[in-house]
Amino acid sequence: MGKIRQQHSGKTKLEAAIAMISGKSPVSELSQKYGVHQSVLQRWKNELLDGGPEIFSRRKKPKENGPTVDDLQRKIGQLTMDLDFLKKALGK
Question: Which of 47, 3, 2, 1 is nearest to 21 (CA)?
Answer without folding.
Answer: 47
